[in-house]
Structures are given as structure tokens and as C-alpha cells.
Amino acid sequence: LQRLEFDAASRNSFTALSATAALCEAPGLLPKFVNAALAADWACYSAAADQADCGRLSVVIATFPRGFNVWFCNVSPSDWLPVAYTGWYPIGAAAFEKAYAKPSLLYHRGELKPEPNLAAGGSFVWLFNYSIIAQLRKSEQSRAMLQRYAHDLSGEKILGRAAAVLSEESKRVVERFGMSYRGDMTHDGVNENVYAMMAET
Fold first, then answer.
1. Do 107 and 185 form a contact (C-beta atoms < 8 A)?
2. Which of 58, 65, 52, 71 is nearest to 12 (CA)?
3. Overall pTM surpassing 0.85 (yes/no)
4. Calpha distance 124→101 (Å, rounded)
5. Three-state secondary structure along 60-106?
6. Euclidean distance between CA atoms 201 and 144, whole angstroms
């Protein structure tokens, strides 16, 4: 994936598959969807500490599939390969409060456990991921991915958002979501910036 070259046709084929759509097609497709998301994740992040853990990714997607999309490009007549993915999920009020007010007390992303459903009165959400392989960054495809991500989130009643931020590019994305720096957490001993925002009441 990291060595792929994209011509105009393969770039124009850029399309999303949601975990919800995959499950509607067949429940047995969930492991393949997780594998596709994992392949995209590992192609986007070179440092092991930044890469998603297969077990946690599987649990998070299975718990809240509607928050996840994997993006594919058709790179040959028969090959659609995962090149990006986005994900978000609801978290409990206590977990959000820690991320918002005391991120230094977070020592692993796994502490931010997914809730299976959105609350009727509104939910706190964790922005799990929004990444695309290096060849497609700052492109029409990356803009389309982020627009879809923003659209999906805008349709929900959200009380607050939080995310661990790994790069300067990611900081610009969360700032566009109205989030600001709240402090640092650690994950596997590596410092990560936490950005968050509370919805206006």
C-alpha cells in the first residue's frame, strides 16, 4: 500500500464502505472489514506506537459499527485496496471528563471504551481516526474523506468531542472541528496531545 502509485482512474474510484453496510450485506463480513481498516491504518502510520491494535480495533468496530468507514481505490481491474479509514464512537461521561479536564491521567487509548449506542439526549464522542495514505494526502480524495466524516458527525447530537492527536496535520483537522488542546495523555509510554471541546448549551 505504501508503494502504490495512483493514476487518475484509480484516484477517481476512491469510495467508502461503511461497517454498517458491510454488516447488512452479511454479518460474517465484519472481520474482513476490520482487516481492511487495519491494513489502511498500518499503511498510514509507520511508528508502532501510532498504529491501531488489532484486538482493540475489532472490539471498537464491533461495538459501534456505524461510526466507521473504510475508503478503497480500484488499482487494477480486479483489485480494490483500502487506502484510508475514519472512525468515531460514543464514550461515557466519566471517560470524556477525564480526556477533557485531566488527560494526564489517561495511560492508554483503551481506557476510552466505546458505548454501543448513542444516548437520546446526546453523547460524548471519541474521534478514533481519520487517516489516508501518504500518496493521497492534501488531495481531492482526502478532502472528500474529511467532508464525509464531518457530515456524519453533524447529523448527531453531540455533547462533546475528544481525540488523541498525532501530527500537525491532525491538529488542523480537530481545530476545524472546534476542538482545542487540553493536555497530554500517554499511550504505551508515548505522549499524545489531547484535543477536546464541549458543546454550547
1. yes
2. 71
3. yes
4. 14
5. HHHHCHHHEEEEEEEEECCEEEEEEEEEEEEECHHHHHHHHHCHHHC
6. 30
Judged by DSSP in three states, 29 sits in: helix
pLDDT in tens, the chain (201 residues): 888 888 999 999 999 999 999 999 888 899 999 999 999 999 998 888 788 889 999 999 999 999 999 999 998 878 899 999 999 999 999 999 999 999 999 998 889 999 999 999 999 999 999 999 999 999 999 999 999 999 999 989 999 999 999 888 889 999 999 999 999 999 877 899 999 999 876
Q: How would you class 116 by CB atoms within 10 Å of its CB: exposed for 0-12, middle for 13-18, buried for 19 or more?
A: exposed
Residue with cell 464491533: 62
Structural contact between residues 61 and 19, judged by C-beta atoms closer than 8 angstroms: yes
Take residue 159 and report the three cell numbers written for it.
455533547
Alpha helices in the chain (DSSP H): 8-12, 19-25, 30-44, 54-63, 93-101, 140-154, 168-176
Instruction: Identify the residue whose cell numbers are 439526549.
Output: 121
CB 22 within 8 A of CB 33: yes
Contact (CB, 8 A) for 38 and 57? yes
3-state secondary structure of 43: helix
